User: What shape does this take?
Amino acid sequence: MRRLIPYLWSFLRKSFLIGVLGLVVSCGGKETPNPFVPSPSSPSSSPSPSPSQSPSPLPSSAPLLSSLNFSSGEISVLPALAFSSGQLSPTFSSEETDYSSEVSFFVHSVHITAVAADPDSSLSVNGESVNSGELSSEISLAEGVNPIEIVVSRGGLSTTYTLRLERDSASQFAEQAYLKASQIDESDWFGARISLSGDILAVGVPSEDSGNPDDPADNSLSSSGAVYIFERSGNEWIKTAYLKASNLEENDFFGGSVSLSGNTLAVGAPSEDSSDPLDKNDNNASKSGAVYIFERDGNGAWSETAYLKASNLDNDDLFGGSISLSGNTLAVGATGEDSGDPNNPMDNNALRSGAVYVFERDNNGAWSETAYLKASNIGGDKTDIFTHPGDEFGSFVSLSGGILAVGVPHEDSRNPGEPVDDCVVNPTPGTPPPTNCAKDSGAAYIFERDNNGNWTETAFLKPSITYYDGFSGFLFGFGISVSGDTLAVGAFGENFDGEQNYGGAVYVFQRQNNTWIRQAYLKALGQAFGYSVGLSGDTLAVGNIEDRSRNPHDPRDTSASRSGAVYTFQRSGEVWAIRDYIKASNLQAGDWFGSQVSLSGDTLAVSAWFEDSGDSDNKEDNSALDSGAVYVFTE
Assistant: This one.
């Protein structure tokens, strides 16, 4: 059981006050200012009524309200994330009777609080009597406009105030495509890795079994792997290529990583075995790994143009387990690489410490290794302490121009300011661990390229709190995405809630004056929020494979365990607000929708590793267990 961190849930008590006697949004009855909304004194906090909103004249004897408020009832995210807007329009005035406002989809109900100007007046909300100044009964909200009537009566006279409260829809994304492999087989995990670039989508299927690049149904080489290319034409996604390695072998797991940039595709095969970059069929370095480059010509045909190996290739290095391509630059992770010396790749004294290699393409189209990167706090050979032998630097990589982010979920340092791991004994559960011993707390490293093409580590990032209980960690860095000066880092193992209702988190960092500052800390319902992340400009997609809802309009439902979901967040200024809740159109328990996400502009691709349909034209077929599927959504 992880520790409870009560102060995080102070967010659930935050609220905001809008207008002079306007709108109060709160949870649990406590009302405190919300930092995400302008204060009442701000000139921008309430719009001026337009001529069409001029107060209707009321008889001088009409009973009136002196204030009108509404507060949240049940919500399904932290309120600081849910309420990015919500002002009464126009600002409350006793003689104005018509109002409107908006709330997030994640607000499922509200309470009304109305105060009568005359204490002898009686009040009702939607026909139910209520005492002046007290909360009404909970009012459930449907998606769309919800009219709420507040009637104040006295001496046979009455005045009706109407609040039209619009609850946002679950998602602004619409499903555009449901994609399956040409040859659908059980346990292929179609969509194990995906990469979207404009109108082109690459889908990795590392467990695919064909031994024939011209016949997906061959099934003669178990887990040789494959990649499918889909291209959008109008509103349709059409399969245009089926790619296999030129030296395909059993258990190479080709497609174990994929990355698209324009008309270039990089594909990792982390278990490929060649020991000679000039001889693909050598097979003398088991699981050393390889990366293949494919390029698309003017006719739309894809062909393999490069075969890349690490300069210090060795058995079990798993080179190509993660890759990221940005223009003419390629980053490749090798989590099994063993060097303990960044200046000596052949050292091999830090078991599974991991490494990242950078390749550059020259003007002639040739690729060459230009950098060999190690963590500043190399961590390896920890089998006497933890169940994993090393930090596995390079588990996740993300490139954006001259910025490279590396996610290392198995990094173990405890204090963010002390990135040196001095765990030297096997910690006993229930006793204080060594100072820098936070098993699998995770870390993210930032490297930047200077004008001379040299890469330097410029930032070492940790979660706000590292926690060690002898068994599990936050896995900060499991999923990482950088876009310009913004970085999103998943930590799906983080849990500050004893009932695991809010398991997982995503941290957003912004580079300001060459320093990476945490800009947002994001949470949502579920137990593995942050399992996958995808960032594009001001939009962030987050996968939650443990989402349990069977109802695409209500994340509170728990009847479809591990069906999965994707949340999107939108940045406005410095604030990230939750926006969409996305479920598969054929959601089933155990599908893990949200296993992978990839964003490009207004298009989102989502994979569900364990989706079961055996028929691409019948989503409900369920005859091919864990065959996998990919869904494409557009705004």
In short: The first helix runs from residue 79 to 82. The CA atoms of residues 183 and 487 lie 37 Å apart. Confidence is low (pLDDT under 50) at residues 1-55, 78-86, 418-427. The longest strand covers residues 144-154.
